[in-house]
Each structure stands twice: as C-alpha cells, then as structure tokens.
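Batch manifest line 216
LIGAND: erythose-4-phosphate
JOB: complex structure
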Amino acid sequence: MEIFVDSANVEEIKEIISWGIVDGCTTNPKIASMEKGKGFEENTREIIKLVKGPVSVEVTTNDLQEMLAEGRKYTSWGKNVVVKVPMGISGLKATKIFKEEGIKTNVTACMSVSQAILAAKSGAEYASLFYSRIGDMGYNPTRVVEESVRMFNVSNVKTKIIVGSIRHLMQIIEAGLAGAHILTIPPQFLYQMAKNPKTDESINEFLEAWKGYKNK
Ligand code: E4P
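JOB STATUS: finished
ARTIFACT:
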C-alpha cells in the first residue's frame, strides 16, 4: 500500500517528505485555494518539484475542452504530474483523450463501484474513491472500496484505487484493510499516526533512567 499526502501546502509537504513515508501527493481546487500569498501555478510547481512520486493536479472546470487545455498545461509543469479529472461523462471523455496522448489521469470524486469501473475503462491511471463522502450518503465506504478492488482484480484492471476524503484515523486502517492500493492522507492524520502517548511515556521512562545512570 502506498501513502500519498493530501495537501497543497508546500511547507507541510516538505516536512512530511522528510519522514520518508511519502509516495505521492494529491491536491484539489479547494485545498489549493487555501494557499494564500503565492499564485496557483507557482505553488503547484513547487509541490511538483518537491515530491518524487506522482502529483495529482485537478482541473477547475466541468467543460471538456477546458479540461483538456488545463490538463495539457499542468503536464508541462513536470513529468510527475497526474491530471485529476472529475468523474462524469466529460471527465471520462477527457480521460480517454489524455490516455491517447500519454497523459496520466486520476478520476476523482468516485462514490461507487460503478463509477470506479467506468474510470478504469476510460483509461485512468488512478480512480479516487471518497471514503467519508460515501459515508455521508449513508453507504458503507469499506464495502465500496472492497468491492471496487475485487472487481478490478477479477477483470485484471491495472487502474489503482486511491482512497481519499479521510476524516478519522480509524478510516486509514479500514480503507487499507479493504484493499485500497493508495491512501491519500491529510497531514494532521499522518502526525496522529506517528504519535502514541504510551510510546512517549515509555521513551521518557528510558531517558529518565539513562539520565540517572549518567549522573552516577
Ligand atoms: C483527494 O484526492 C481528495 O481531493 C480529498 O481527499 C477530498 O477530501 P474531502 O472529502 O475531505 O474534501
């Protein structure tokens, strides 16, 4: 299982990359719009340079021609750019065209197995299932992830499933065990994953004992 960082904040991404746990990065227009001070292109180009793996950069339109123009522009910013395309008929058409042009896509905001299948069929490198948002609709997101993975395996589909929309630590384990190929995780949960009060207590106990020993 791979871990992507779900952020558009350069400093956050830089810090987490230094932990050695980042395989890629996903951004979206909402989190990108929260980055003040720099323009979208400047900020995104910095992220693309920082991250060794794939960086998903999302189009900001539902119009096919505009999606194609934005996606082609993004790919000129770096070799590791993956164009994030919204799930839907125009998004599927764009995915097919991008595939023919050798441009990798991440079909985003998939909420069902059916949508994930169409994303894969249209040529997406990645299909993003939105874990919490699926739950918001009253469906079981673990089941959606499990069934999508099973469906892809049965059909020998190479598209990778990214699980995004993580809002609780527990969901990371659930989605991972459901077979997600990639989890894209907001920085605050990566910090939470690294911490455990019992770890801190144990290490402090050892350090205190060591201090006493050194003082003798
Ligand atoms: C990832 O690709 C998504 O853009 C992101 O995880 C969406 O998360 P949200 O549902 O918290 O907005």
